[in-house]
Amino acid sequence: MNRWAWLGLALIAFLFWGLDEVIVTPLETGEAYPPYSSLRRDPLGAKALYDSLSSVIPVDRLYKERMKLTDEALLILGVDPVAWSALDAETIQRYRKLVENGGRLVIGFLPVRTPPHIPDSRPVEALWGIQFKYRDQPDEEERDSIPRETSLYFASGPHWRSRDGFVERDFGAGTVVLIADTFPLSNQGLREERNAPLIAAVIGPARRAVFDENHFGVVETGSIVKLMRKYRLEGALAILAIVAGLFLWRSGSSLLPPRRVVLDGAVAGRDSLSGMAALLYRGVAERDLMSVCFAEWSKTERNGAKTARVEEEIRGKDAVTAYRAACRALSEKLR
Question: Which of 38, 110, 192, 228 could make an S-S bridge to 50, C-beta 3.0–4.6 Å?
Fold first, then answer.
């Protein structure tokens, strides 16, 4: 039993280790989130930018639908430029309406290589007067990896202002900012070279920064897991799991050695009379015992006078008295 108990504990420990590697660790490092997410801590994330801005201005994350901006800067990072430039006109106009009352809409595109296929219809070029172009670059790295330097650049019209690393244009009281080279905003870019002037120019006069996580599919659902993370109940969950494991271990094996049971002799069973008495006790009520016995006996007794005499003796009496009276009546007849 001790060997099986230790094996069970080892399996439980292995299960917790596997859950930590599969669920907890990817969430802590951010590998479960897309590139340029502010929840990601590895070189491809933007957690460093989030933490850096939080020391200067209020910073928040957006997990729901976008609302119109006022005095904040909404950062939408890690956007695919090829897919975004091919959005329909209605969607492009919704981006414009976000900044009509003020604020800054910052769209940072994912670093890409020259795409093999570029959509012919790109409404953003006709509506906003800006062209998405791609320069040729040698394929020194794998095609599936995210390059350090992007091949994307903008050919902007007269309404756009070209800044060092990005372009911007006013729509109503707000501003739309498009960033082609977003590597300086990533965790690796900030670690290698902190381009503070670029970050300050991107945020501009905004009093608050909001990182949009909704377009990554990270949506606020009000789940139990979110409540546990909000109130930091991960430790309580771990304690409950440990208690459950100990309960299962205690139920499966005893802490004391098993008691040896020694039989002194054979165990005698019941005889047929005891079995019959038990059946009668379970199947016949006490008040009906004599009437049932008389009915069964009378089926085999052919002497009508004897049957009438016994019936007369037991009528209206309790079971014990009726039994004794029936025995006397039968004994008298036998003499």
Answer: 38
Euclidean distance between CA atoms 59 and 38, whole angstroms: 11
Residues 181 and 276 placed together within one structural domain of the fold: no
Which residue's structure tokens are 């040698």?
A: 138
Q: In this structure, which long-range contacts are made by residues 155-162, counting pairs with CB atoms below 8 Å and at least 24 apart in sequence?
A: 155/130, 155/131, 156/129, 156/130, 156/131, 157/129, 157/130, 158/129, 159/129, 160/129, 160/130
Domain count within the chain: 2
Same domain, 296 and 196: no
How confident is the model over 251-297, as pLDDT tens digits? 666 656 666 665 555 556 667 777 777 777 777 887 777 888 888 88
Q: How far apart are CA 50 and CA 111, in angstroms?
A: 19
Helix pair angle (319-334, 304-314), 10° resolution: 150
Is 205 part of any domain?
yes
Neighbours of 256 (CB within 10 A): 6
Answer yes or no: do 184 and 278 share one domain: no
**Residues 180, 37: one domain?**
yes
Does residue 127 lie in a domain region? yes
Per the CB < 8 A criterion, the answer to whether 115 and 82 are in contact is: yes
State the Cα–Cα distance between residues 151 and 317, nearest whole angstrom. 112
198-246 per-position pLDDT tens digit? 999 999 999 999 999 988 877 766 566 666 666 677 777 788 888 887 7
C-alpha span between 212 and 203 (Å, rounded): 14
Residues 6+ apart with CB under 8 A from 163: 201
Please tell me whether residues 61 and 208 are part of one structural domain: yes
Q: What share of the chain is helix, strand, coil (3-state, %, to 5)?
A: 45, 15, 40
Please check whether residue 165 lies inside any domain of the structure.
yes
Is residue 45 included in any domain, yes or no? yes
